[in-house]
Amino acid sequence: MISRLGLALAGLLAFGSASAVEMPFSQQAYDQAMQHKAPVIVDFFAGWCPTCRIQRPLIKYLASSARFDKVLILVANYDLEKPLEKSLNIGVQGTIVVFKGGREVGRDVGELNVGELAKLFSKAL
CB neighbours of 92 closer than 8 A, spacing ≥ 6? Predict the structure, then answer.
């Protein structure tokens, strides 16, 4: 049986969409995306973080752009995803990590400029 995530990932890779696929982090989604070498952005978000709250609408704006239609954005809860944080050496919330071809190609901490975020997101393409 093909999972809903599998269908979304297959559609993202094969056909794209009008915008990036943005979803809460799950290990399954992350593992599948890495296996398929999909362009992935992991956003380490905390609801109590003022920087994260400013970043959120900027990320949503970029995610809605056709430019990033093949990108999967996984929003990782900074307070809950400790194994992921350890594996990626994440020290603070507001960190964004970009993957292309199954490997990390960029990261930034606390970026609040939409132009700089767009440059970072472009590394996934």
Answer: 44, 109, 110
Residue 11 has pLDDT above 90, yes or no: no
Closest by alpha carbon to 37, among 125, 117, 118? Answer: 125
pLDDT digits (tens, 9 = 90+) for 45-55: 999 999 999 99
Looking only at the bridges linking them, the beta strands covering 95-100 and 72-77 are unpaired
Assign 3-state DSSP to the chain and report helix, strand, coil percentages, each to 5.
Answer: 40, 25, 35
Instruction: Provide the CATH topology of domain 4-122.
Output: Glutaredoxin (3.40.30)
What's the predicted TM-score (pTM) here? 0.86
Dihedral, CA atoms, 88, 86, 8, 6, nearest 10 degrees? 110
Domain residues of the chain, as ranges? 4-122
pLDDT confidence bin for 93, thresholds 50/70/90 = very high
Name the β-bridge partners of 109: 95
